[in-house]
Amino acid sequence: MADEAPFQFLHNEVLQYIYKSAENGETDNGRNIAKLENMGFRVGQGLMERLTKDTARFKDELDIMKFVCKDFWTCVFKKQIDNLRTNHQGIYVLQDNKFRLLSQLSAGKQYLEQAPKYLAFTCGLVRGALSNLGVKSIVTAEVSVMPACVSDHKMIRKIFS
Amino acid sequence: MADEAPFQFLHNEVLQYIYKSAENGETDNGRNIAKLENMGFRVGQGLMERLTKDTARFKDELDIMKFVCKDFWTCVFKKQIDNLRTNHQGIYVLQDNKFRLLSQLSAGKQYLEQAPKYLAFTCGLVRGALSNLGVKSIVTAEVSVMPACVSDHKMIRKIFS
Fold it and tell me: Is the rRNA processing keyword given for this protein (chains A, B) (predicted)?
């Protein structure tokens, strides 16, 4: 029940720290997002390095994405991705119906505009994980509804096939 | 095996971020330590709040310390404290022989002076956890040897009995 809690709490503190130090300084929202994304990138790289230590070589890109959806996601968020879709041309959509870093936010639409800063770290996380396996990617996130069950869409586009 | 890894990696990134942003700015080492300690404090508070949600009321201080050594430590570091000693007058020494946040550092004495910054967050973590249960404390940490098996001593002194 509380297995993922230390990570969640620390993530929230990092968020607050970065936004608070920005208030006193010069940085704008975009730069804070970039900082969080970079932080996620390096965490993702390191994590993937450790997780794939003893796994067999991946067959193809889809195989890599499945690993991200299952093992990688479970390691960080203690649950799997709920839905993986692809157009088989390098675009993947990962859907998490109960995204842990958002599940503490209130339901409804009033905090929807706050969502991007809660997603930046995770975008970087996925990008870093893929980068560690030699897949360059662009990762974006979307939240359409934020009910008790949160929906989190991730669009992953490869830019270099 | 990799259960505690996301937390560890994130902790390392936070450390690097705080120290790197300090290089460009005005802050000194003591202030960075304080920032980490404060971050740990709030994480500890939140975690303890969640962990004690369904537990019975604690009998006494020793009971609280045992909970910190077992449940709390396991939640964050996936292992228990190895040794708890007390003088029954408000001083507790917690010993972790393989402290996770140090176990990635090289053995030997050459990085011993780097240790405090890896311990600051955890000191705050314990202080925050105790504070959430109404125990005001001073938490300090010591590292005497840093071999493959890392020894981490924590001296917890209550200031208000």
Answer: no
Chain A contact set for B129 (CB, 8 A): none
Scanning the structure block, which residue is given the tokens 């040897």?
B145
| Per-residue model confidence as pLDDT tens for chain A (161 residues) | 567 788 889 998 998 888 887 665 555 778 888 989 999 999 999 999 999 988 889 998 889 999 999 999 999 988 888 888 888 888 888 888 888 887 777 666 777 777 788 888 999 999 999 999 988 888 888 776 653 334 444 455 544 43
Contact B18, B35 (CB under 8 A): yes
Residues of chain B with Cβ-Cβ distance to A46 below 8 Å are: 5, 9, 12
Cβ neighbour number for residue A134 with a 10 Å cutoff: 8
This prediction's pTM: 0.83
Indicate whether this complex's ipTM tops 0.85: no
Judge whether B68 is closer than 8 Å to chain A, CB to CB. no
CB count within 10 Å of CB A118 equals: 21
Q: In what order do the strands lie in the sheet with A83-86?
A: A83-86, A91-96, A152-158, A137-142
